[in-house]
Structure of PLP-dependent aminotransferase family protein:
Amino acid sequence: MDDKYSTRAGYVKPSETREILKVTERPEVISFAGGLPAPELFPVDAIRAAADAVLTEMGQASLQYSTTEGYTPLRTAICERMSAIGIQSKVEQVLVTSGSQQAIDLTGKLFINEGDTVICESPTYLAAINAFKVYDARFVEVAMDDDGMIMEELEKTLQAHPEAKFIYTIPDFQNPTGRTLKLDRRQRMVELANKYNVLIVEDNPYGAVRFAGESLPPVKHFDTEGRVIYLSTFSKIFAPGLRLGWVCASEEIIDKYVALKQSADLHTDSFAQMLTAKYMEQNDINAHVEKIKDVYKERCETMLSCIKEYFPASIKHSVPEGGLFIWVELPDTVDSSVLFVECLNNNVAFVPGAPFFPNGGVKNTLRLNYSNMPNERIVEGMKRIGEVLQRELND
Ligand code: PMP
């Protein structure tokens, strides 16, 4: 069969994280590896009521083919949500996608020619790396500090790579680091994009899940020339299984996305779109998000206090103000994939950080997820990781 596959099919290997997740699915494993929301918070009863209303009121339409752009009442609700955080947009500037992951894939399809340069944070979201790799992207990583991508480094990168197509950034509670791009850097990023004539792809799935500190306007808020393409999702504030995300950009850019989406899947699930619009009509989704934030805040605080208590003092880590992840940096000499095997033997798991660096080379980091485990399991799991770390580091 080897001569039958496209060259493109060879550009990505099955995601290492997915392979890891398979092993960690055993019930005895305390897993901080995935990026799953807390399922006990899914508003199942309210969703049942909304589904019932959709089937009663629009049963046939909800099961029929529909337009590629998406269900207008849902797009209107998305515009209202964006307006509340500082993005003013017309309905025509919003395309509903099958999760924001599809928006990432379509972004690659729309902008990346073979060998094109994508500028990204170092590290960055693994499934975006893999999506862009399929289109044969080259990655230039820009260093971060606790306040996100460093703008002086970004400017140097833009000078060295004038051919770059876009900057891919996750400004709020980044996956994998949990770090947030500081306010003045958001504005600066747009100024630099204008100056060096590149686009910005702002991937912002976590912005609404802020449980500490002050809310910051998205990068798109500072867009002066229609250069920022904003991606977001219902996955972290509602239900990821419904696969509902969106792209917001200029109408010109959205028209291009629409043409590509049409050949990808015609349109996003009509029933899921109507259901979500109905849920928002019948319920206060912001009140629901508040509940999510309360739970994640507590779990994050538990995990942070466990780091203090059980991990060696030499270990550095992020202190997220929202989202799902804590990033841990170990001494340079430690390989987190070796630690991973040892931890798994003790029935506890995390994701080694190496795959989040598109050009490789960094082995001493790991990502911890706190959204998917109750507090007692977090404490027990962190104790076990701490024991392995104490052993490894004191050897
Ligand atoms: N972007 C980032 C940074 C993510 O962490 C995720 C989910 N893990 C996605 C996009 C995709 O989310 P979805 O397709 O569920 O909207």
About this structure: The longest helix spans residues 285-310. The chain has a mean pLDDT of 96. The first strand starts at residue 30 and ends at 31. The CA atoms of residues 40 and 372 lie 9 Å apart.
